[in-house]
Design goal:
The chain is an alpha/beta fold. It has two domains: 153 residues, Alpha-Beta Plaits, CATH 3.30.70; 251 residues, TIM Barrel (Alpha-Beta Barrel), CATH 3.20.20. It has 17 helices and 15 strands. The strands form two sheets. The chain has an eight-stranded mixed beta barrel with strand order 6-7-9-10-11-12-13-14, surrounded by four helices. Strands 2-3-1-4-5 form a five-stranded mixed beta sheet, with helices on both faces. α5 packs across α6. Bound molecules: ligand C2E and magnesium ion (2 copies). Ligand C2E binds next to β7, α7 and β11.
């Protein structure tokens, strides 16, 4: 495959569709079109510089070439986008297998030198002839639509089906509505209290985005955060969250509450380093006790590219932020890098906490994470506490901080203020 011709991508596109036409004319089995897009392109540019791009792409092409069969055909059709023809398939399952094989070419577990590609993630869109179209241009279009859906729904592989067009339009509409919601200040920040388990004092709060859409009603963050992450909208959304949370924190400090706030960081911004510049700028506006600002990064986000993540984390720490690893226990971390992560806090996923009173295995996991965190001089937060028994047990196990519906649900800023005032006179929860 000749990847030097990024500029000539339209020529390559034509070559691909012509070739596909030949395959379609001469095949009586299924033919798959796989469109592969490296999904972490900003990070690649940030880390290696654009000049590095051609060499990387050549290496990626070679890796793809080496992985396909003699009867397949692959070509680069755009910046970071490759198209592959896979003939002779018996069913959709085989198409998925062919796609997975291509994905492994760019996986982080790959040994050197492929890891050097810096291309650790890709998404695939697949369409099959004659199932989805029997004409080359239409088939490629369907594979591209499947890729769009993969991006919007945060999946790594989508095979086209009758629903794809509808789902892509739904995601586009959601993105447009979200863009407007950001512009029109329709997003809100809710605060979920965190309690110091050992002293029963309020420790702070986690800032959680809420979208009460006039048009759609409430939309869950799990639905719109992936859409934001796959577009440029994640930047203004994160800036809004940080800015609002920092402003609230100033207010609480002014009112004599010695508490902090934690903001969730999206994985995409962690990988391209954009978050460092953003935080630096916001810190010049808000003059706060920086040690009280915590940034939550999910374990699986860190695992996407651990070296770059650690690098960004160090820069965030240099700015004075505390760092917390969110949803700990679900992201398949390994001890080989754990010791190098500059985190101040581990946040145990609610999956383990929810049922720990009834399930000894979950209890052992929670106990082990607490021990691990303390060994590394980190604090431990348990999230998802829904009853008094769990809170009691966590206290006994030496957990530092607790968060969950039993303490309080996420509250609007006004309700959180009232909650803070009420807590001064309330009975201890423990
Ligand atoms: P997360 O950071 O792990 O946030 C905790 C989630 O658990 C929140 O859901 C919270 O409402 C929920 N939760 C808290 N206590 C309990 C409990 O006792 N039981 C149960 N079952 N759930 C509890 P939410 O607000 O729906 O957020 C879901 C996820 O969306 C968050 O998970 C976070 O990954 C993401 N998210 C939320 N706000 C933001 C944001 O501003 N920026 C980014 N990048 N992600 C956000
Ligand atoms: Mg969180
Ligand atoms: Mg969490």
């Amino acid at each position: 495959m000749n990847s030097a011709a990024v500029q000539a991508s339209s020529t390559n596109y034509d070559e691909f569709t012509n070739k596909l036409g030949e395959y379609l004319a001469n095949n009586d089995q299924l033919v798959a079109v796989v469109i592969l897009e490296a999904s972490n392109t900003p990070r690649i540019d940030a880390r290696f510089g654009r000049s590095h791009r051609d060499a990387q792409l050549a290496a990626l092409s070679d890796a793809i070439d080496a992985s396909i069969r003699d009867t397949d055909f692959a070509i680069q059709i755009g910046d970071y986008t490759f198209a592959v023809i896979v003939p002779g398939l018996k069913n959709k399952g085989h198409a998925t297998l062919a796609g997975r094989k291509l994905q492994r070419v760019v996986q982080p577990e790959m040994p050197e030198p492929k890891r050097d590609l810096g291309l650790v993630e890709c998404r695939l869109g697949i369409a099959l002839a004659p199932l989805h179209a029997d004409e080359a241009l239409a088939l490629v279009k369907r594979a591209q639509l499947a890729l769009e859906l993969a991006k919007d729904s945060n999946r790594d592989l989508v095979i086209y089906d009758d629903d794809t067009v509808g789902q892509v339009s739904v995601a586009w509409e959601l993105r447009d509505d979200l863009a407007e919601a950001i512009r029109e200040s329709e997003l809100e920040v809710f605060y979920q209290p965190k309690l110091n388990v050992q002293t029963d004092e309020v420790y702070g709060a986690e800032a959680l985005v809420r979208w009460f859409s006039v048009k759609r009603g409430p939309v869950a963050p799990d639905v719109f955060i992936p859409v934001a992450e796959n577009s440029e909208l994640i930047q203004p959304l994160t800036r809004y969250m940080l800015n609002t949370a920092m402003r609230s924190m100033m207010m609480w400090q002014r009112d004599g509450h010695d508490i902090g706030v934690a903001v969730n960081l999206p994985s995409s911004m962690l990988l391209d380093g954009g978050i460092v510049t953003m935080l630096e700028a916001l810190l010049t506006i808000w003059d706060l006790d920086k040690g009280r600002l915590t940034l939550e990064l999910t374990e699986s986000a860190l695992m996407r590219d651990i070296d770059t993540s650690i690098d960004t984390m160090k820069r965030l720490k240099d700015l004075g932020a505390r760092l917390s690893i969110d949803d700990f226990g679900t992201g398949y971390s390994s001890f080989s890098y754990f010791k190098n992560i500059p985190a101040d806090e581990l946040k145990i996923d609610k999956f383990f906490v929810n049922n720990m009173c009834n399930d000894m295995a979950d209890q052992h996991i929670v106990e082990t994470i607490i021990g691990l965190a303390h060994r590394f001089k980190m604090k431990v937060v348990a999230e998802g506490i829904e009853d008094a028994a769990t809170l009691e047990l966590l206290k006994k196990l030496g957990c530092d901080i607790a968060q969950g519906y039993h303490i309080a649900k996420p509250l609007s800023e006004k309700d959180y203020d009232s909650w803070l005032d009420a807590r001064r006179y309330a009975q201890p929860l423990l």
